[in-house]
Every structure is written in structure tokens, then in C-alpha cells.
Model the fold of this input.
Amino acid sequence: MEDAARLLQLVVNGAAAGCIYGLIALGFVLIYKATEMVNFAQGDIMMLGGFVAYSAVAHWGLNYWVGALIAIVATAMFGYALDAIVLRRVIGQPQFAVVMLTLGLGFIFRAGAGITWGYDSVGFDTPFTNRTVKLGALILGEDNLSIIFGTVLLCLVLYLFFAKTRLGVAMQASSQNQLAAYYMGIPVRNVFSMIWAISAGVAAVAGILLSPVSMIDVNMGFLGIKAFAAAVIGGFGSIPGSLIGGVFVGIVEQLAGYYLPAGFQEVTSNIVLLGMLFVRPQGLFAERMGKRV
Amino acid sequence: MRYLFRTSYQQDLRAWRHGGDVFWYGLLIVLVLIIPFVMGEFYVGEMGGVFIFAIAGVGLMLLVGYTGLISLGHAAFLGIGSYVNSVLLAQGVPFLITLPVSGLFTALCGAAIGRPTLRMSGLYLAIATLSFGSIVGTVFQKWTAVTGGFDGFAVPTPYVFGVSVEGATGVYYTSFAVLLFVLWVSVNLLRSPIGRAMVAIRDSEVSAQSMGIHLAKYKTLAFAISAGITGLAGALFAHYVRFLAPDAFDVLLSVQFVTIVFVGGLGSLRGAILGAIFVRLLPQAIAIVRDDLPFGIGRLPGLEPSLFGLVLVVVILFQPGGINGLWLKIKLWFQTYPFMRQASGRRQKSYARSERLR
Done:
């Protein structure tokens, strides 16, 4: 009984961490599906979102929910501007130029955050901090449950947005075929910037959900590397795939931290990623496709 | 302006374009050889560092600039080269054997990583090498029996034909010799069928494949060669730092290598060397002006990485040709004087090129 409860607890903790990876990976996938760019600064955008929420709650004394809303909107606007000002200029340049560009931007964001908010870890009070729910022998932190619940809710909202709204359908159309979307009168460039905005907003949500569990600091963006494992498992183009991949990576990481010697936990996600590339490089949820010249 | 009259087909395949190239590069080599007699120990040491980074830069240039793939884990290959070389030297193997062995071993590691990932688009290589880099970094830290972990590893002094390679001057000449060798190999590789296949893959994978180029094979080959050259640089790097610490080979170092390639100018071996000079001298320049900067900017802890990031962003956005492109533009200005116009160097309007499978 004791063992089963502990195992379950590890799984829940892992799933919560995995939801964060999944949300970051979701940001990669949204942008990749639409523009074929990979945003290596996604983790750093999450860090910015977390810091803005911290400022709103701890410095300006706002309500947690208001602060979270401000952070999400501000980060989304930042994402829009990022695409409109910087990324749009490199359309047509090789893919690796975009990789390096976003990587460079990530370093700049990190320095900018360091100048603005300092290099110490910070945290703020949330309605979920240090509260637990008891289910029989199982003690679950409300912080972890809030992450899982928030992720599910966000996915539902995103699903409804992409399936039901005009803008969402326009986004799907632009990512399937840019030229045809142009002909149908969709302002593709603005749509792409809006996808960057959504992706940045999702990253901000991830940062805010993460804040009760771990402190916010400048180097938080390195979580992005773990999120790559999630995206690759999902096949780098599948939105449910990236979430499932994230949860998988999170759970494996927790179990490895508990059962394997020290040092393994840090590299688990990397080993999972490389293993996946060796065994099934196209990911679990990829469609079979041929190349059109 | 110099006009090249081609009188034989061989002329197009030669490693140099005309006699002027041979003369000026020969003069440069002579100058580099006499520098240690003229300049102080510190400058000679720094130049040795530049040579080592230039070797790694040439290796990465073959991958990024000529094959169109990107690696964010070349620091790991540098580290593997360093540790293989140092551990073998400590076992009493002579330096002339450990140097090529560390290069070959690193090339094998590169092939092992490249083989599975290169079936997919080039993006996967960037991600896979990023995580390979962090796995290797952890291995260096935890495998204390071989690497010494955080206690570090004192690199033994190597001997070449009974002469010990010691101090700044020894590293300087050894690195310069290896740099010349690597450049000789790369120049000849690039005018061989392998090099042409690499360039074809960079320009269009689909058309390269339809010309009968085995994509996975040539990509893996390019990656292995690139890793191997970086391994050679790693072996020399061990003697440059003389005391190996596992945290030297982190993501930041990989980003520095890619900065060398981008800042120097993609698709030119000269660019790799110019980039190496820039990347090695930037921290020195920061150190000199650190105290004079306003608002205490010089004291910020994350200054160096963010400057590398800023340089990368600025170069990619405004000067995609890098330093080499700038040099070519200046040369063109003088050659065509007074006919250079604003639009002369302008990039063609380009559109998003899909690498997606449909």
C-alpha cells in the first residue's frame, strides 16, 4: 500500500511537471506548424511571463488572477511584436538562421530579465501554495493539481478556438497552405504574428502555473530543452502529441529521480529524446508523408 | 580590377584562384611564424587560443556553411577530443598517436549521433546535438574514475620527436601546424566530389537527391568530418588550458562556436578564421573597457553570453555574409570604383522555402 501510494504520488508530480513541458512544447509546435520556424527562446519567454506575473502580484499588490491575466496579455503582445519586428525579416533565410536567431534572442531576454528583476530566485503567493488535498493515504499538493487542471482547461480553450472561431480556422488554413490562404484573403503575415502571440501566451501560462512549484529565476528557460523531448516524442507537429510527450517525459523523470542513482534525473529527458530519435525519429503521432518538389 | 582568363579546365578546380592568392597567403604564413619572436608571451598564448578556435570553426563551417546543417553540441565534441587525448597521454601513449586518435574517435562519436538523426530534417540535428551536449557534459562530471570530475584533470606535457610542447609558444606552433593541415584537408575536400555533394545538399536536398546523392550518407559523412576536426581542436585545447574541468564544455561554448561561423561568414573557410579572431578577442575587449562603461553595464553577471546573443542577432538580421561578406563588399567597392551603388549588394527578395513533407 505504502509503495503504491508513493508510486502514485510520483506519477502525479511527474504529470504536473510534464504538463509544463507539454505547454512549452505546445508553443514550439504551434509556431512550427504555421511557419516552420522553431523558437529556441520559448523557455525564455516563459521566464518573462513568470517575471511579469511576479511584478504584478508582489510589487503592485494585485490579485493573483488579475496579475496572471496581465502577464498573459503582456507576454502575448510581446510575442506578436517579436514576430512583427524581428522574425518576419528572416523569412526565406535557411532554417538554421532562425534557430540561431531565436537562440540569440533567448540570451538577450535572459540578460534583460537579469537587469530588470535581478539574478536571484523569486516567488510570490498563489492560492495554491502549500495546500494539500487528502485522498485516503494519498497526499497531493494543490499546486501540482492546479498545473494539471490548468493545462487541461487551456487545451480545451485552444481546441475550441482553433475549431470554432473564424480566426482559428484562418490560422489552420495559413499553416496548411500559405499561398492558398493568401488567395482566400487571409492576412497571412498578421495571422503568423498572432500565432506567435498565442504561443507566447501559452508560455506565460506555463510560467505562472509553474510558479507555486518552483521559484522564478533567470535560468528557468533551460526547461525549454526538456520540452524538446516532449515535442519530438509527439512528432513535432502534433498538438495532442506534444502534451502526451510532455507528461511521459515528466513521469519518467520523476521515476528516474527516485529509482536510479543521483545524476540520472537531469539527463533523463535528453536520453529519452535521443532514444526516441534512434527508435522512431518521426515521433509517435506523425502522419506518413511524401515530399513535394 | 583583375580579370581571370581561363585557359584550361584545371583552372576552375585549383585550390587557389591566381598567383596573388599564393603570394599573400604565403606572406601571411611567414608573418605568423615569426610572431612569437616579436611579441610577448601573453599575446602568443591568446593567438594559440585563436588558432584552436579557428580549427573548431573550420570544422563547424564544413557542417553549417557548406552542408547547411546546424549543431549545438560541438562543445561536447571538443570535450571528447580533450579527454581522449589527455587520458591516452596519461597512459604513456605518444602525442603523435593520441592527436589523430582523438580526432578519429570524435569522428566516430559524430557518426553515431548523426546516423539516426540525419534521416530527419536538419532541425532534428540541432535538437539532438543540444541534448547530446548536455548528456556528455553530465558524463564528464559523473565519470570521476576517468575524468576526475570537478577535481579536474591535469594534462601531461606532450612530446613531439623528443621536443616537449610547452608554454604558449609550443601550443602556438602546434595549433598553427594543425590549423594549416585542417585547412589543407578542407580546401581539397571542398573541390572533391564529396565537397560538391555537400554544397548540393545545402542548396537543395531534393535536387541533390535526384542527382543521385545519398543524402543520409553524405550528411553523416559531413557531420563525422566536422566532429573529427573539432576533436583535433579539443586535443589541442587540453594543452592550451592545461587543466581540464568538466564544466568548460557547456552549451555556451557550443553557441560560441556557432557564433564563429555566423559572424565570420557562412560558406567561407576564411570566414571561420575571421570569426574565431572575433569571438576570442571579444571577451578581451570587454575586459579592457569593463570599468569605463556607464551605468555599471560592465559589472552585469550575464554580460558575455548576452553580447554573443546580440552579435548573433545583429549579424543574422543585417549582415548575413558576416565579416567575410563585409570584406568582399569593401573589395568590390574598390575594384569597381566608382560604379558601386546602394543596390549592388542587396539581397534578392526571397520567400519562405518549405522543408516540410506533404
Observations:
- The two ends of chain A are 59 Å apart (CA to CA).
- The CA atoms of residues 215 and 222 of chain A lie 14 Å apart.
